[in-house]
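FIELD: query
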Amino acid sequence: TVEVNLRNHKEEAVTVNVLEHFYGAWDVTKESRSSTREDAGTLLYELDVAGDGSSTVEFTIERNR
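FIELD: result
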């Protein structure tokens, strides 16, 4: 399980792409936000972070053997 916390110290809102790379066969078994599987080894979360705010995503990956 991975948790990514982002904090925006600017006054304006931003969108941040969180890319996670994995090898081998894997599946997302739990996630707090929707993701996009970019390719066989890359998972993408697009997080909108308000001005002077924060955003969090948490997900669990299961590796298939």
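FIELD: remark
The first strand starts at residue 2 and ends at 7.
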